[in-house]
């Protein structure tokens, strides 16, 4: 346990030493064919502009950091940034190479979700066995809540803000020690007791921060696998730990969204080619909206639209975006213009994006370590590790925090 504690503080210090000096990269999302300020200021622009198309594709699939040592003409500062990014990204362990728990998968649960449930049940078992109650925050339809109640023979309560999900979970949970309540954990008090185990499986953004703070106030054991760090209450995420506050780790929402990127030729939900196509459609949509006089920041073009819709093409995407804003449908000429011009611009934007994408995983790790360090500063024994295989979900970083005992 002492080694795990040293790991959190030591790795956070190394992560902060990478991420904080690179905040200029993280804060500026490339959105035009012109090189962003950080590329010009750091001397990256000429190198990225001259990158051959086939090498660009390899960098996107394998990650720029892994390719930089082999690329002639790469700026030394960029090569060093990549080296440190690889180092920070290398967590020392997986919690379990092969889960011991094997579930009979219900029809309503995907194979990937089943693997996540199996792995998390294994990971929390030591804490769950000594808990009086398991509190599942953001329970959804309650799969983890029910399984934990049955597997560990404990009372379990699932907290979920959507009444329909609570109703469905309650029906599925009849006859078990699981119960479900409607509560908006982003806004309403989360009441925890010292002998509870608080769990958040893919608790998004501010909810992950809140779960750490509420658990530490009890104090009770906590297990958190975070997701969608950009889903925060305001424009900025303030750090939780004293170490991150001292370093100045204040992250804008736009930078936090970068943590969702993963360099993989074949993604969990779609191939790299499909994801790039979706990003191209989003850029074309942003062009179209601005041409219509809509002032939007990068990323806001998808407000109110599921991100998966970007795979459907600009026509469908524009129809939804314009309707949401009370604007007339796009003409065929508008679609052709913004598809063509957007494709030209996006070819250059892909190059400018590479340094930011290289920092995606280190950024996610830094936020997770900040949360774990906040627990450690409050007397917890905290452990951080990968809990799932990346092909089950790339959002696979777990914090397991054991509360201080009297």
Brief descriptors of the model:
methyltransferase activity; transferase; SAM-dependent_MTases_sf; Methyltransferase
Strand order of the largest sheet: 3-2-1-4-5-9-8
Helix fraction bin: 40-55%
**Largest sheet, described in full?**
7 strands, mixed
What do the pLDDT scores average to? 90
Over all CA atoms, what is the radius of gyration? 22 Å
Strand percentage lies at 5-15%
Distance between the termini: 17 Å
- The secondary structure category is alpha/beta
Shape designation: globular
Number of strands: 9
Q: Total number of helical segments?
A: 17
Write the element-wise H/E pattern from the N-terminal end onward. Answer: HHHHHHHHEHEHEEHEEHEHHHHHEE
Task: Indicate the low-confidence ranges by residue numbers.
Answer: none
């Amino acid at each position: 346990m002492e080694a795990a504690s040293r790991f959190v503080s030591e790795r956070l210090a190394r992560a902060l030493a990478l991420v904080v000096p690179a905040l200029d990269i993280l804060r500026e999302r490339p959105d035009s064919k012109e090189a962003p300020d950080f590329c010009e200021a750091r001397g990256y622009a000429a190198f990225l502009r001259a990158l051959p198309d086939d090498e660009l594709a390899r960098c996107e699939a394998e990650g720029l950091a892994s390719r930089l040592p082999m690329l002639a003409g790469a700026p030394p500062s960029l090569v060093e940034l990549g080296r440190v990014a690889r180092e920070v990204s290398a967590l020392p362990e997986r919690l379990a190479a092969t889960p011991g728990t094997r579930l009979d998968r219900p029809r309503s649960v995907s194979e990937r979700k089943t693997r996540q449930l199996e792995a998390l049940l294994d990971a929390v078992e030591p804490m769950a066995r000594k808990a009086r109650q398991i509190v599942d925050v953001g329970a959804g339809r309650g799969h983890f809540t029910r399984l934990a109640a049955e597997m560990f023979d404990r009372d379990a309560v699932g907290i979920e803000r959507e009444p329909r999900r609570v109703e469905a979970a309650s029906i599925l949970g009849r006859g078990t020690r699981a119960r479900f309540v409607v509560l908006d954990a982003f806004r309403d008090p989360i009441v925890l007791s010292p002998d509870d185990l608080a769990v958040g499986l893919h608790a998004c953004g501010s909810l992950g921060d809140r779960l750490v703070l509420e658990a530490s106030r009890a104090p009770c054991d906590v297990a958190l696998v975070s997701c969608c760090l950009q889903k925060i209450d305001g424009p900025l995420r303030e750090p939780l730990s004293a170490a991150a506050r001292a370093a100045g780790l204040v992250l804008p929402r736009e930078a936090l969204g970068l943590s969702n990127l993963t360099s993989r030729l074949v993604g969990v939900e779609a191939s790299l080619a499909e994801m790039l196509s979706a990003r191209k459609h989003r850029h074309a949509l942003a062009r179209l909206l601005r041409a219509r006089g809509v002032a939007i920041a990068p990323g806001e073009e998808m407000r109110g639209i599921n991100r998966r819709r970007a795979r459907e093409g600009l026509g469908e995407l524009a129809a939804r975006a314009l309707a949401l804003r009370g604007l007339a449908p796009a003409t065929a000429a508008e679609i052709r213009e913004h598809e063509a011009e957007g494709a030209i611009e996006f070819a250059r934007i892909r190059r400018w994006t590479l340094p930011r994408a290289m920092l995606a995983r280190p950024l996610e790790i830094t936020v997770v370590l900040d949360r774990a360090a906040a627990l450690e500063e409050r007397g917890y024994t905290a452990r951080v590790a990968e809990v799932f295989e990346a092909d089950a979900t790339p959002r696979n970083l777990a914090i397991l925090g054991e509360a201080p005992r009297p």
